[in-house]
Every structure is written in C-alpha cells, then in structure tokens.
Amino acid sequence: MAYVTLEQKGSVGIITMNHPEVLNALNDETLNDLSAVLDEVEANDEILVAIITGAGRAFVAGADISQMAHMSAYEAKKFGALGNQVFMKVENLTKPIIAAVNGFALGGGCELSMACDIRLASEKARFGQPEVGLGITPGFGGTQRLPRIVGASKAMELILTARTIKADEAKEIGLVSHVYAPEELMDKALEMANAIASQAQIAVRESKAAIRRGMQADITTGAAYETEAFGLCFSTEDQKDAMNAFVNKEKLNGFKNR
C-alpha cells in the first residue's frame, strides 16, 4: 500500500499510517489503503492483535483539507461515508486493536484513534476535533464516539470550541488509558498487545464483541450478548484446559485457541 504499511512482530500486526509529508492526512487513497490492510490483518491467522500508529510527528493530523476544500455537498457526503465505513471496519475487527498515538491526532486522526479498542499516547500527542473552525462537523464518527467515550458535556465542549488538548488532559477525561514518554510508546504498546495475545483468543474476541455490541444496546440486551459469549466459551478446549489446570493446581502451558 502506498500510504499504509503492515509489519508483523510475532502475534502482533503493526499498522503504520505512512504519509509523513502531509502529517498522514486522510484522503481517499489513504482510507482505501487502510481498509485493505485491515482486511490483511483479519485474514492473517498469525496476527492476534493489531497496533495502529503514525510515521513522523503525527498519528493522523486530520482529513486532507486540500482534497475537501472544493467538494460539493454530494462529494463530501460520499467522502464522509467512506471514512465512516473504514473506521467501522477498525471498530468491528474481530481482533483487538490498539492506537499508539505518537503525535497529532486531530479531526479524522482523533476519530481513527477512537475507533480503536484501546488508546495509548505519547507525551507529544495532541487530540481535538477542530472541524467547526473550518465550517463543518466531524465527519468520520467524532460526534458519535467522543460522547460515548468522554460523556456528552465534555464532547460538546471539545467539538463546539474546536479546542486541542494535550495527552495528560486526554488521559484525565478518559480518552486515552496511558501516557508514555515518546521513546517508550511503541514498546509499551507492544507489551500490552503481547499480553492480550497470550490470553485465550476465543475468549478475547468474544469479550471484545460483547463490549462493542453492548455499548450500542440497552443493558438487558447487552447482558444477553454477554450470556451468549459466556456460554460459547464453555465449548472450547481453552476453557477446559485452563479450568482443569486451575482446579488441579497445575501450570497451564499456553492456550490452543480452539
């Protein structure tokens, strides 16, 4: 892919937004490249967890304004639909995906990070939805994911003022889980990814799916999803092996993921 790369390190796939000359800004080609790389990750049985990061000093600085500036309403709606389609693919990837936010995550970049399951940030990271300052709304899910993550009042504040925040404030409001020194970020992301990869993968994926589905439903429906996932796990060899080892006070030597 021209603007998105995939590197495999053991059980972890590292997806890099790789157009640093424009701070990894999102245009049609970049979004289509990301979609194709996500398909590769989904199809590769050796990759259990993915990390998304950015090349250079940005994660993703936003959508490509030079492309958007002369769009008609129809063209803009089509571009927004593409972005939302690709970011829904990020969210619905069966495998957990971690955003390692190394720098600017503005507009579409903040929206991409929010589509991921877990967000880690460098001390140099900056987050924001500056769209109203350009006369538009967020277009790739920002109005939907940000209030679900940080609450309606804080999301309204950030979106309606177009304010950019630093990594420590992003952590304070729950937008990111951890903040690290820049040189530690990828090591910490890989450490977390490998910790996830060491668990029973059917249980990991069912847990992710139950969380994702439950967040879009009332708690009764969400609990029903969880019950289905819980029951399904009892049909796996991993559950039998792990629980028998626990009962017999034996060491479990890894999971079979079946």
Question: Can you describe this structure?
Answer:
This protein is of the alpha/beta class. 49% of the residues lie in helices and 17% in strands. The protein is built from eleven helices and ten strands. The protein has helices spanning 28-43, 65-68, 73-92, 108-115, 142-150, 152-161, 167-172, 185-197, 201-215, 219-233, 237-247; strands spanning 4-9, 12-17, 49-54, 58-60, 97-101, 104-106, 118-122, 126-128, 164-166, 178-180. It has a six-stranded mixed sheet, with helices on both faces. A four-stranded mixed sheet has the order 4-6-8-9. Strand 1 and strand 2 (12-17) form a beta hairpin. The two termini are 32 Å apart.
List keywords for this structure.
four-stranded mixed β-sheet; alpha/beta; single chain; globular; about 50% helix; 11 helices
The coarse overall form would be globular
Give the CA-CA distance, first to last residue. 32 Å
Percent in strands: 15-25%
Overall average residue pLDDT: 96
- N-to-C SSE string, H for helix and E for strand: EEHEEHHEEHEEHHEHEHHHH
Unreliable segments of 5+ consecutive residues: none
Largest sheet: 6 strands, mixed
